């Protein structure tokens, strides 16, 4: 092979390899973007992916840290309501949040004779419409650092900032922090909180 032929061969070979590498990098980028998009659409809560195509009850039922909340929703006959079109914004207390309540409180609320009281507690965690964390923070800033939020229970709690965290204060003066925000659902949005709100 002459020097000129060798150079031509090498250049052609280099072009082929460059095309191959470009194809590989393009494939890797596509997979990475797809995985990122899925992660954005389906954040993890309690070890389960929250599918934005499913409703609030369907998603909460998959999360192993929201089992007490799901049991309470069922006991209060709110499954149909929270599975409806909404939209709703739900501040969802974790199992640990319920465990902070005085001993025996959850067991008492889950009794059939206390269904109305339980429903009242749960609906204190629901506001009409879809309200994102950004919406809350904007309202807080627009109200001198303290936003009054009216729930579907007909009573209010207050939202404030503590550093970068959104903190909710109930009518009894107890505080709860949003620990996972903007979990989109087919019928609204869920914000996971670390304490139960009471009034």
- pLDDT below 50 for ≥5 consecutive residues: which ranges? 24-31, 33-39
Strand order across the largest sheet: 4-3-9-8-7-6-5
Can you name the CATH architecture of the largest domain? Roll
Secondary-structure element string: HEEHHHEHHHEHEEEEE
| CATH H-tier superfamily of the largest domain | FAS1 domain
Q: What is the 3D shape? A: globular
- CATH topology name of the largest domain, in short, is FAS1 domain
Give helix % range.
40-55%
- Mean pLDDT equals 86
Number of domains: 2
Count the E strands: 9
How far do the termini sit from each other? 89 Å
Biggest sheet features: 7 strands, mixed
Radius of gyration, CA atoms, in whole angstroms: 25 Å
Counting helices, strands and paired strands, the structural category is alpha+beta
- Strand percent estimate: 15-25%
Molecular structure report:
- The chain contains eight helices and nine strands.
- A seven-stranded mixed sheet has the order 4-3-9-8-7-6-5. The chain has a two-stranded antiparallel sheet with strand order 1-2.
- It folds into two domains: 1-41; 44-193, FAS1 domain (Roll), CATH 2.30.180.
- Helices cover 43% and strands 23% of the residues.
- A hairpin with a 2-residue loop joins strand 1 (44-45) and strand 2 (48-49).
- It is globular, with a radius of gyration of 25 Å.
- It has helices at residues 3-41, 56-60, 67-75, 79-82, 95-99, 105-109, 115-123, 133-142, and strands spanning 44-45, 48-49, 88-93, 126-128, 147-150, 156-162, 165-169, 175-185, 188-193.
- The chain has 199 residues and is α+β, with helices and mostly antiparallel strands.
């Amino acid at each position: 092979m002459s020097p000129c032929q060798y150079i031509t061969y090498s250049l052609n070979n280099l072009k082929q390899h460059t095309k191959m590498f470009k194809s590989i990098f393009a494939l890797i980028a596509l997979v990475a973007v797809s995985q990122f998009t899925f992660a954005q659409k389906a954040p993890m809560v309690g070890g389960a992916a929250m599918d934005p195509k499913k409703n609030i009850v369907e998603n909460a039922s998959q999360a192993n840290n929201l089992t007490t909340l799901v049991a309470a929703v069922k006991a209060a006959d709110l499954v149909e309501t929270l599975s409806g079109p909404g939209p709703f914004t739900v501040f969802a207390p974790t199992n640990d949040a319920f465990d902070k309540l005085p001993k025996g409180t959850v067991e008492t609320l889950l009794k059939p004779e206390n269904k109305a009281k339980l429903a009242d507690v749960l609906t204190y965690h629901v506001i009409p419409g879809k309200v994102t964390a950004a919406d809350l923070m904007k309202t807080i800033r627009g109200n001198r650092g303290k936003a009054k939020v009216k729930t579907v229970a007909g009573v209010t709690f207050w939202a404030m900032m503590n550093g970068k965290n959104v903190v909710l204060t109930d009518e009894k003066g107890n505080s709860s922090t949003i620990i996972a925000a903007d979990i989109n659902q087919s019928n609204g949005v869920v914000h996971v909180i670390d304490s139960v709100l009471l009034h």
